[in-house]
Specification:
Blueprint: E1 20-22, H1 24-35, E2 42-50, E3 54-62, E4 70-74, E5 77-81, H2 86-89, E6 92-98, E7 103-108, E8 114-115, E9 122-123
Parallel strand pairs: 1-6, 2-5
Antiparallel strand pairs: 2-3, 4-5, 6-7, 8-9
Length: about 120
């Protein structure tokens, strides 16, 4: 373990990347969702076991933060992160993409070591 000391001789803490960041497209889509059918609810992002690579991103609407949820607020949009997902998500960017055949939220996660062929699951 390496410790960096500042000039006063005390340990210097390294800053951590944000737990989860939202792209402009994700903020815009969530804003539309929050203002329409999901008004008064919050999106909770979690990681569960699923698929051939072992883990998958899960998103659910909830009425209030749960015990231990991390609260992320970006450009006035709030997203909850399940406590058990925090170690898997550090530094992740949540985006929203639309194409001719599909649309949805996608995650760019620097912790991922691989994904299954269909893209439904990942491993760290």
């Amino acid at each position: 373990m390496t410790t960096t000391l500042n000039p006063s001789g005390t340990a210097q803490r390294r800053s951590l990347p944000p737990l989860l960041s939202l792209s402009e497209a994700a903020v815009a889509r969530l804003r539309r969702l929050y203002e329409s059918g999901e008004q008064g609810r919050l999106l909770r992002v979690s990681v569960g076991t699923k698929g051939c690579s072992g883990l998958s991103y899960q998103m659910n609407w909830v009425d209030a933060p749960g015990a231990g949820d991390e609260v992320i607020t970006e450009d006035g949009i709030t997203v909850l992160i399940d406590r058990q997902a925090t170690l898997f998500l550090i530094g992740t960017i949540m985006d929203y993409r639309e194409s001719a055949l599909e649309s949805g939220f996608v995650f760019s996660n620097p912790n991922e070591k691989g994904r299954c062929g269909c893209g439904e699951s990942f491993h760290v």
